[in-house]
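Protein modeling request. Please complete all fields; requests missing the sequence field cannot be processed.
Requester role: graduate student
Desired output: 3D structure, token encoding
Chains: 1
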Amino acid sequence: MAYKSPGKGYADVADHFRALIKSGELAPDDALPSVAEIREQFDVAAKTVSRALGVLKSEGLVTSRGSLGTVVAKSPLVITGSDRLERMARNGLRYAPGETSSGHRVMRRSVYEPAVCKALELEPGDEAVIRIRVFKQDGRPTSVGVSVYPPHTVNEVPELAEDVRMVRQFGELYTERTGREVVEGQRTAQARQASQDELNALEIEAPPHTSVAVLVTTVTFHDDNRALGYWEDVYAPGSHVPISK
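Delivered output (245 residues):
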């Protein structure tokens, strides 16, 4: 990838490769360029490259592998659903190498969860379409993605209610059909106790009455008039989740 600008520092070099790992363009076990190649690419000193690689190693993103040099670590980043949108816009990749999804379910349900009702301006008991899928890396569950759509969004994008994988993102279809831009709200994160359904989806076996803490990120999408969708990602314990700038 062409990227060369005199004066770049170690943080810039680290950020470049961090973005490639996050986007899936560099997968676990992929080798980074050699120190000499990185020096040439960024027009920096060997010390700058060494510091950049040290930062990536401290973040658990890369590791040394003998004659192979520096490679992407086996424990890859587990990204949020909205980061997945950015990945697709950047390089068209829905999944990183080794990443898959399963357990796709689509259902119409009455919504009572206070946070969801507040985000989507629904009354408790109002019906919404809920889509669920489990993301895996090399066959190991890493997160559960849940998206909730109110009736007015489904009216414009009826594909959301179909029990099939979406070929295109709902925001693209909504904007295409209504002319209204879809805006991503503030992402938030919190730790809470996992439900039994979440434990089952993440294939976590825990003794009865044992609490298992999970990290949960949420975001709401809007147009210029109202809320359109609520996304929640639940991560398996130990997942390495990047926090957006």
